[in-house]
Every structure is written in structure tokens, then in C-alpha cells.
Automatic annotation (TrEMBL):
<keyword id="KW-0732">Signal</keyword>
<dbReference type="Pfam" id="PF03480">
    <property type="entry name" value="DctP"/>
</dbReference>
<comment type="similarity">
    <text>Belongs to the bacterial solute-binding protein 7 family.</text>
</comment>
<protein>
    <submittedName>
        <fullName>DctP family TRAP transporter solute-binding subunit</fullName>
    </submittedName>
</protein>
<dbReference type="InterPro" id="IPR018389">
    <property type="entry name" value="DctP_fam"/>
</dbReference>
<keyword id="KW-0574">Periplasm</keyword>
<keyword id="KW-0813">Transport</keyword>
<dbReference type="InterPro" id="IPR038404">
    <property type="entry name" value="TRAP_DctP_sf"/>
</dbReference>
<dbReference type="GO" id="GO:0055085">
    <property type="term" value="P:transmembrane transport"/>
</dbReference>
<dbReference type="InterPro" id="IPR004682">
    <property type="entry name" value="TRAP_DctP"/>
</dbReference>
<dbReference type="GO" id="GO:0030288">
    <property type="term" value="C:outer membrane-bounded periplasmic space"/>
</dbReference>
<feature type="signal peptide">
    <location>
        <begin position="1"/>
        <end position="19"/>
    </location>
</feature>
Length: 326
């Protein structure tokens, strides 16, 4: 049979779009050696290996593709495939999720893992996927501690008058206010300069962020408040998810789950090793009265239920159900 160019053209039109090789762009706001990007590189390796090179993953670090808010909007508009943000940060689109960034809500990282790898994670996915994204899994954002350039912090009184940067997440910000700080929302990529110039006195982040962003250069005091353990939602653009074949979707989804363990292991490694590194860089470390801070922020649970009703209570109940021994 003679195959005409018209026949070939018609045949090509019948090939599904997702049969072609695809590129997945992953955007993050932190440095290349940060635990988030350790996870991203493992995701890249797994996807490219398991797809036999049919999927090309490109990781863009250091806010190259924009800040967190801009990248979420890119996902929702279908111009970026993948990024991650904390549950509370996504409260700009699904406000009740801010409940999960109430201070001292999780006992430790294992408590958070049980919650998000279980029923709480399923409930969060149900809420998030109403907003133009697919939720593929959870990375660890880590346990957050305070740093500042003014004085050592031992308890709530020491935070009075200090301007402390927080992410733009309502209950995260309220937590710092009740702890005693003058909480100031700001994008992460603006933070170093803001502290260097004295726009804010300090900030709060996991040890990995404090170390990799070189905050010891502009802050002298580190207080191990452990006030928040945050979780990143690994998000994919709903519009672009359909461009992947079912086989590629499964590869991507499983790679997120598998890379999450590598990413969490890196967070644990950093927590074990970086404290001494930061002390060697000149930071004065204190272990403040966590119970005093926890008492200060306790009213936020009732405030969230008053604001969001049964929706917030359900999230809090799922957090409590995941406690050890529950």
C-alpha cells in the first residue's frame, strides 16, 4: 500500500498528546543543597529513570521561577508543572488550612508524619484539589526555631518588641504574635536583606533554612522554640496533569512518595548536625521555656473553630487522633 503524506498527517493527529516526551518543571524558593531540593533531585532521578528518559525533569531553585505565591498561581494557570508550599500558606486559597499552622499543634515530626500520611493527609487533599492542583504527597518542611539580632530569647517576655518575619499564613502569624513577637509577613527571598538592613529583627525557620540561607551572618541569637512543625504539600498543576499518560502519572506520583523518605531523612540529618555548625559560626543558642510559649498560643484552637466551625474541628480531631497512643 502506498502511504501518502496526507495519511501520515491524519495518523499523527490521532496520537494522544501525552504520547510525546514531556518536561516537568519543578520550582522551589530555597538553595540547591537544601533538603527540599535533595528531595527534588531524588524525584528527578526516579522519574527520569523509571520513564526511560521519556520525562525530563528540570529543577529550578532559589526562587528562579518566582516566590511561593507566584508559583502556586502558575500551577493554577497551567504555566508550571510542580512546586510545594506548606498547608498554612495554601490558606490564601483554602482558609481553613491555616488551622494546621497553630503553634505546638504537633508533638514532634513523627506525630506529623502519622497525621499527614493518614486520614489528615486525605482530608487536606480533598480541600486542596478544589483549587486547580493535584496533591501528590507530602515533604517535611521541618521544626521551626527563632533567630534574631537583638537578644537571647528564653520566654515570651524576651520576644516583646522584636519584629520577626513570618510567611504569609494567618495562623502562623497569629502564633508568633501570641508568643510575644511583632510578626511581620514577608517573602522568603526578601528575608536576608531585610534582616541585614534592620527592617526586621529576626525570623523563624527550621535549622536547614537558617544554615543554608546563611542567617548566622545577620542574626546572633538562635532560640530552640520548636513552635511549629510544618509540612509541604507537593502540588502539580491540574491543567497539566492531564498531559501525562496514565503510566507517566503513576511514575510521577510514586516518585513523589519515594523521594519524600529521602527528603525527610535529610531534614533529620540536618537537625542532628547543623546546631553545632551554627554555634561554630558564632550563634548563641538558648533552649527557652516551650511550655510557656505553648500556653500563650493555646487559645488559637478555639479561635480557629470559632472562625471555621466543624471544618476546623475536623482537622484538629484528625491531628489529635494521630498522637502516639491514640
Amino acid at each position: 500500500m502506498r502511504i501518502t503524506s496526507a495519511f501520515l498527517a491524519a495518523t499523527a493527529l490521532c496520537v494522544p498528546a501525552y504520547a510525546q516526551d514531556v518536561t516537568i518543571k519543578v520550582g522551589t524558593v530555597v538553595s540547591g543543597d537544601h533538603p527540599e531540593n535533595v528531595g527534588a533531585r531524588e524525584f528527578e532521578r526516579l522519574v527520569e529513570e523509571r520513564s526511560d528518559g521519556e520525562i525530563d525533569v528540570r529543577v529550578f531553585t532559589d526562587s528562579q521561577l518566582g516566590n511561593q505565591r507566584e508559583m502556586v498561581e502558575q500551577l493554577r494557570s497551567g504555566t508550571l508543572e510542580m512546586t510545594w508550599v506548606t498547608t498554612g500558606f495554601f490558606g490564601s486559597w483554602e482558609p481553613v488550612l491555616g488551622t494546621l499552622e497553630i503553634g505546638y499543634l504537633f508533638d514532634d515530626r513523627e506525630h506529623a508524619f502519622r497525621a499527614f500520611d493518614g486520614e489528615l493527609g486525605d482530608e487536606v487533599a480533598n480541600l486542596v484539589e478544589n483549587h486547580g492542583v493535584e496533591l501528590l504527597g507530602y515533604y517535611e518542611a521541618g521544626m521551626r526555631h527563632l533567630t534574631n539580632s537583638v537578644r537571647a530569647v528564653e520566654g515570651p517576655d524576651d520576644l516583646q518588641g522584636l519584629k520577626i518575619r513570618t510567611p504569609r499564613a494567618t495562623y502562623h502569624l497569629k502564633t508568633l504574635e501570641l508568643m510575644g513577637a511583632n510578626a511581620t509577613p514577608m517573602a522568603f527571598n526578601e528575608l536576608y536583606t531585610a534582616m541585614e538592613q534592620g527592617v526586621v529583627d529576626g525570623q523563624e525557620n527550621p535549622l536547614s533554612n537558617i544554615y543554608n540561607a546563611r542567617f548566622s551572618e545577620v542574626n546572633d541569637y538562635l532560640s530552640l522554640t520548636g513552635h511549629l512543625h510544618l509540612t509541604h504539600m507537593v502540588l502539580y498543576s491540574e491543567d497539566l496533569w492531564g498531559d501525562l499518560s496514565p503510566e507517566h502519572q503513576e511514575i510521577v506520583r510514586q516518585a513523589v512518595l519515594d523521594s519524600a523518605q529521602v527528603q525527610r531523612d535529610k531534614v533529620a540529618e540536618d537537625d542532628a548536625n547543623l546546631l553545632s555548625e551554627l554555634e561554630e559560626q558564632g550563634m548563641e543558642v538558648t533552649e527557652p521555656d516551650r511550655e510557656a510559649f505553648a500556653e500563650q498560643v493555646a487559645p488559637l484552637r478555639d479561635e480557629a473553630v470559632a472562625e471555621f466551625g466543624d471544618d476546623a474541628q475536623k482537622l484538629l480531631d484528625l491531628v489529635d487522633a494521630a498522637r502516639s497512643g491514640s
